[in-house]
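INFO  loader      accepted 1 record
INFO  loader      residues=377
INFO  predictor   begin
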Amino acid sequence: MRTMRHGAVRLAERRRPAVPPDSVALLAALPVPVILLDAANRIRFINHAAEQFLGSSAAAATQFGLADFLAADNPLFLLVDQVRQHDARVADHDMALEGPRLKRMNIAVQGAPLAEEPGAVLLVLHDATAARALDRQLTVRGAARSVAGMAAILAHEVKNPLSGIRGAAQLLEASVAEADRELTVLIRDEADRIRDLVDRMEAFGEKPVQYGPVNIHRVLEHVRRLAQTGFAASIRFTELYDPSLPPVYGNRDQLVQVVLNLVKNAAEALSDGAVESPEITLLTAYRHGMRLAVPGSSRRMELPLVVTVRDNGPGIPEDIRPNLFDPFVTSRAAGSGLGLALVAKIISDHGGLIEVDSRPGRTEFRLHMPIFPEDPA
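INFO  predictor   done
INFO  writer      dumping tokens
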């Protein structure tokens, strides 16, 4: 009996790639997902970061193979084969890892052979989504400054004479014949439209803003009430809040403007009647792991508060997704394309980060925000 048990243990050891015990602790502590495959592409080890990445515990994941998570034609299988074939490290970028249990985009993968186990491959994954979002946000911030400069010029060179044109149209309206009155109304309305556009552009200006502790749930509830009594009266709202969240470090009025813009966009995406049960979901959560450098300082700011606005609409058109936060980019015929650009600027001014994930039936805007510090200085 003892001999049979000893043989079973030796068989189990042969099935498991030989990873030195001290290396297991090191891999487990790494902040990036690490997955160890055996020669048959069965999962034999994942660290804590990989558990979150795969959405599976280590105990459950090690019962599966890579093919249980990814489609058979996924390029990751080719990368793994190349590692084994050349017995060398192989790296790839911008990979889409999609399958029955996983959907991740913009993933950088590094594969390396494991000397202790022939055929075993160690995969290290890097999610570039947040880095790309930050890069886009910095680009948008530069564009916002350009818009602010343009608005200052327009305010000086256009708004003043525009007021004179509108006043003249009003005077003419009272004296012209009925047949010509429609033209004076058109002049007045177009003057108002141009003035409103310049006013929206002026919102990009670098004006002093007071920051302090803000209860993000009160902001969300305020926006929800505004939406349900107006433009989103026919849409169902769902709230999934973490009631233990600390205050956000920000400006209450600007955060209301941000969430209102996102909710209004979600409502407009659901307004064509194509969705049978239109729904907007507001979520809050506390998550560690996101940090950004504070401009002009060596200090780094934690962004643990996550606010999500989700809708079940048709999704954002693929051709505008890369430039979604750029000024004047919009998919609506009547849109100005300034709403999301202003959202990105405000979140950047707060030291936060905005991400978007969109596909048919599900669009999410996620705001990563700082908490109110114990020492505001």
